[in-house]
Task: structure prediction
Amino acid sequence: MRTTPLIAASRVLILAALLAACDKPPIQPIQPTPPAQPGGGQPQGRLSTLEIAVPLTIAIGESVQLTARGRYADGSSRDVTSQVTWTPGHPDVLSVSSTGRATGQASGEANISATLDQVWAGQGGVIVVPAGTFRLSGNVTDERFPVSGVTVTVLLGRGETLTTTASAGFFQFYGVAGDIEVRISKPGFQDLTRKLHIARHEWLQFDLVLANERDRLSPRYDLRIRAADECHSVLPEAGLDRKYTAYFNQDGPLVTATLEGATFAVAHNERMNTFSGIVQPDQITFYLSPEFMETFPFPKVFEQVSASTYFAVSGTVSARISGSQVIGTLDGTILMFDGPAPYRQSASCSSAVHRFELSR
Result:
């Protein structure tokens, strides 16, 4: 076949185009763009822990930026302040915005927590006070034992007229500073007045002195524990009324009672027939809280009523001396168990008015 000049020219152009294409770099595949991370940055591993930075004190009306930092399983860390969920424990004392801006609202203390991807971090006891003032807190004791119902008042200085009542011996004020005078008082004790200089948050201890000689319990009483009326339809007959002989040993405010006249359970070579108490001018408090031995919470009083029946009582007794008697109420629970060990609870009744009577 004869080749025409037009065909030959076309072949030359095609060959040139192929040779030019061979000199170009190969086309690269398109790479996917990494997903954007909250707040920028590269993908992280699994969040392991959160760390939050919260000041100890925030003034009323002051706003402070809190921060949170996440630490990840791959060893990296970054600021996650804007990603966590901020939660104030007491918004009326300290409010926190969704971006972590904390603002003092009223005197007191508040907890703050942050969560992200089910990881939690918290800071407790953030103090909120008027600017330039501090928190004064402390314990009021009677020979090392806490005294409830004590009135603590600021008589002079910054915070004058502030007053509070100690609960379980503990009190606290918000908004005191400089030279102040404090009075601690309760009937049955001598008033205690102290001059203090407050330049930071302070914790103090005050030990009261009795106004009169302390009451003393007799060495021996007959003890009767009777279930509250509402328990009569719940407990069996054996759990409604128990009697013992109680022997007391008193050392200052501390008393220890040992019960006799019944068969008591034994745990780890210890008979469950003793409890302690505190004698103070306004009342006597007995503590019958259980003790945990291995996995079973043995009550202080745990009586074996029969071969297969056990009686137990736990709680707190508030009582007063009345002539030859000590009369009080038990705020707690009367329980019945099937035994011997392992014990199985068969009935119980909780009340604030179980009767507790000591008679001579």
Observations:
- Residues 220-359 form one domain.
- The chain has three domains: 47-129, 134-207, 220-359.
- The longest strand covers residues 170-185.
